[in-house]
Structure formats: structure tokens, C-alpha cells
Amino acid sequence: MTTPENYVKILFRFYSNLLEKQTVETMWAEIMDADAGLYILDSIPFYASDLAFGDVISAVYSEDEEMLTYKETVSYSGNSTVQVIVFDKMGVTDEIRAFFDDLGCISEKFKEGYFVIDVPADLTYTPVRNKLQELSEAGIIDYAEPCLSAAHGNAQ
Questions:
Q1: What is the rounded CA–CA span in Å between residue 32 and residue 48?
Q2: Average pLDDT over residues 1-7
Q3: Domains of the chain as residue ranges with CATH
Q4: Of 79, 12, 3, which is closest to residue 46 (Cα–Cα)?
Q5: Is the per-residue pLDDT at 150 higher than 60?
Q6: What angle do CA 155, 141, 125 make, to 5 degrees?
Q7: What is the DSSP letter of 4?
Q8: pLDDT tens per residue across span 77-111
Q9: Distance CA 65, CA 9 (A)
Q10: DSSP E strands, 54-140
């Protein structure tokens, strides 16, 4: 795969509540202003919390890591990130992802049985949460909301 010149990989170090350990994750970001160290996150975080697709972040080059390393979030996109674990072996991950695609969300699969959903800022979250709860109550999935924007936090 050829990477466009205006994209870079950024390293994130954090404690993952999902994995219950210190974790490293790399994500793609679009260069906003390299001199100022500003980038737009172009990945849906698999494990990092409090981050979402489209957030503006700052990163600095780390000699120890030999790559750009996350420093802080400068501004939030308003998008939300949802982590989904598929328990029901009959529930094929891609088929479940399709439910959320139909609701207007994009998703990325880490592996069979685990994926993350990006909920766009301008999308009403209630139908998405209702589907998550329906699948959870049926024992097909469990989910976490590690980055729920203010716009989505009031969903019933």
C-alpha cells in the first residue's frame, strides 16, 4: 500500500481499560501543520479511550520511540468511538458491522469478534445505541463507549 505524503503513523501509549494493561497503538493521521505538530486522526482507535476519528491532536518526534508520539488532543471532532466484542459465534462480525453501516457509521475490524465504530458528530446516536443494546441483551455482543461526545452522551 502506498501511503499519501500527507499521512503519518503516530504512536499512542496508554492504559487500556479493555485490556487492563499498558498498551501501545499506532494510528494514521493526516498532517495538518507538521511544523506545529498538529495532525487530524484518520483512524478509529481500537483501544485508546477519549479519542475519536477526526480529532485534532499534537504529536512530537520521540528519539526513544523513533517515531511521532501522541502528546495531547487539541480539539475534538464531536465523533464518538464504540468498541464491540462479538460473543455469539453465529454472529459474524462483518454482518453485525453492516447493521451499523446502515445507520450511518463506519467501522474497522481488528479481528473476527472485535471491531470499533465511529459515530459521526452529526448522527443521532439513539438508533445506534438501541441496536447496541438489542444485540447486547440478546447475548450476541458486548460494547463499551470509551469516547462518547457531548452530542451523543444524552442518548436515552
A1: 21
A2: 74
A3: 7-75 (no CATH), 80-147 (3.30.70)
A4: 12
A5: yes
A6: 20
A7: P
A8: 999 999 999 997 766 888 899 999 999 999 999 88
A9: 12
A10: 56-62, 67-75, 80-86, 106-111, 114-119
pTM: 0.89
The cell numbers describing 14, all together, are 496508554
Q: Where are the alpha helices (DSSP H) in 31-113?
A: 93-102
Q: Beginning with the edge strand found earlier in the chain, give each strand of the sheet holding 141-147 in spatial order.
A: 106-111, 114-119, 80-86, 141-147
Residue 70 and residue 57 in contact, taking contact as beta carbons nearer than 8 Å: yes
pLDDT of residue 80: 97
Surface-to-core class of residue 83, CB atoms within 10 Å of its CB (0-12 exposed, 13-18 middle, 19+ buried) = buried
* Beta partners for residue 75, in sequence order: 56
What's the confidence (pLDDT) of residue 7? 96
The identity of residue 58, as a single letter, is S
